[in-house]
Amino acid sequence: MRRTSRLTFFALLILVTLLAFCVVLVREIETDFGKVDVRVVRFPGELGVELVGKLYVPKSATEESPRPAVLALHGFQNDKETMDAYAIELSRRGFVVLALDQYGHGSSGGRMGLVDDDPTLGGNAAYQYLKSLAYVDRANLGVMGHSMGAGTTLAVAEANPDHRALNPQCGSPGSPELNNVLLTQARFEEFLNFREQQPTTAELTTDPERLAALGVADEAEWDTTYGSFGNGSARRQTLIDTVHPGLTHSRKAVAEAVTWMNLALNDGQTGEDWIPAEKQIFMWKELLTLLALLAALGSLMPLTELLLERRRFAAVAGPLPDSLPDNRSYIAPARAWRKYAWLNNLIAGLTYPILIGLGGYLLASAIPGLSMIIANGVATWFLGNALIYLLIFTIWYRRNRRKRNVTLFNMGVSFHPERLVIDWRALGNTALMAALLLGWLYLLVFLSQHFLGIEFRFLWPFMRQFSLERFGYFWVYLPPALLFFLLNGGVFLFGQARQRQHQTGMETQLAWWLKSCLAALSGLAAVWAFQYLPFFLGYAPGFELIGLPLLSGMIPLLLFVYLPEFAVLLFFLTWFYRRTGKVYLGALVIASLAVWWMVAGTAM
What we know:
nine-stranded mixed beta sheet, 17 helices
C-alpha cells in the first residue's frame, strides 16, 4: 500500500474511531452510566397502527417499589429523540419516561391525518401502555409535550382524568379542570395561536383567554405558582428566553419540568434518586451526536480517496478546468460574481416562503399519498429554483460562450474541453461510487441505531434508518433535489460563479466554501432576519407585521435547521467538485443526504 493510501486509510480509521467513541459515550450518558435501562418498545395504537417509543426505566423502579411515570410527546416534524433532554433528566431522578413517536413520525406507522380518529396521535395508547408496566406507580402519571405534542398532551389528559401533572410546552394550558399544569412558554413564540393571537408574549400575563384557561382571576405572573398540588389546581406559566424550537433543549425549561413533576408526582420529596434540577447532562448527548454526525460525513472524504485509487473509479475524477495548461479556463470576474450571487439570493429568498407554503399543501391535496407536507414544499422549492436557474443559465451561456470563452467543460458538465461529451461509463461509475458512499453512511447509522439505539443528530432528526415506506418516499423526492444540486449547487456555484484557486488546497476549499455559502444562503438568511429581527426587538414577527401570518410560523422556523444544514452540505459539495472536476458526484451524494434527512423520520 502506498504511503498516501496508508495515510488516507489512517484518516478513515481515526474518524470511525471518533464516531464509535461518541456513540458509546452517548449511550452511557443516556443511561446515566448504567443507572437507567433505555430500550425501544413497540406496541399497537388504538387504530391498529404500530407505535414505537423509547422507554427510560431507572434501576430503582421495581414491582416492589413502583415509580412515577411521564409520557413525553414531541412536536411536528420531530421524533421521540427530540424529547431526550426531558427523558434523560427525569429518568436519572427516578421517573419512568416513555418518549413516543406519534402517528406519522419517527418509526411509528400511520399518518398525522389519523388525528381525526385519534386526537392523541397515539398518545392515549402510550399512556395506557405506560400505566400497564408493573414498576410504574399508576396513581402518579404525568404527560408533557412540545408544540404539536402540547396539543396531544392536553388530549391525553382529557381522555385520562387520572393524570396528576401536565407540562404543555409552546401550546395552550388547556382548561381549569386539568390537573397541575405547568405551561412552558417561549418568549419569542413564532406561532400566533400559541400566544393567544397577541403580537408578543408580553401581553399574556393579563390576556383573558390565558387567565381563563389557567383558572387565575386577575394576573398570571411569569414563574409564579398558583393553586394547590393536592387538589390538582396548581398552575404556573414559565417564560423561557428562546424561540419555539429552542424550548426542547433549554436548561431552564428542563429544570422547571423536572421540579414540577417532582412536586406533582413525588409530593416534592427528594429521595436517593434526586439530583438538583439545575445539574443536567443532556446537552453532552446532543454535542456528541453532532460530533458523530460530522465524523460520519467526514469519513466520506478519505473513503472517496480510497475508491478513486481503484482502476474502476479512476475516470470519475478529472482535472479542474483552470488547471489545464492552455487558455480554456473561465473565472467569474469579481463584479460579475457579485451580480450572480445577488440575483441567486434574490430568487431563493423570494421563492422560499411562497413555494414551501404552497407546494407543501398543493402536492398533498393533488397527489394521493404525498402526505409529507414539508418535504413537498422543499421539493417544490428545489424544482422551482432549478427551473428558474436553467432558464437564466441558458440565456447567459449563449451570450458568454464566445465572449468569455465559456464551455460546458468549464461548467463541470462536459467530459471534453472543446465540445459537449458525456462519458456514460464514467457517469455510471460515478453513480456506483455515490451508492457506495451512501451505503457506507447507512451502514454506520444501522450499526449505531440497531445495537445501541443512538442516531446521528443534533436537536433534530437527521441520519436515521428508513422504514420501507419512507425509503420509497426517498426516491420520490430525490429527482427535484438532484436537479437542484446539479444546477444551482453545481453549475452555478462552480461554473458560472466559478472562483479562482488559491495557493493551497485547504485555502481554496475554505474560500470556495465560504463564498458559496454567501452566494447560496444569503437570501434564506434574509428571510430569517426579516421574520426574527423585528420579533427580537420587541415587535411581532416580520411576516405578521406585513399582514402575511400564513407565511409566518413554520416556514421561517425551518431555517433554523436548513441554514446550518445547507452550510455543512455545501462544504462537502465544494470538496467533491474540487476532487472530481465535475458536478455529478457531489450532486448525487449531497442531494441524497438532503432527501434522506428530510424524509427518514419527519412528519407524514
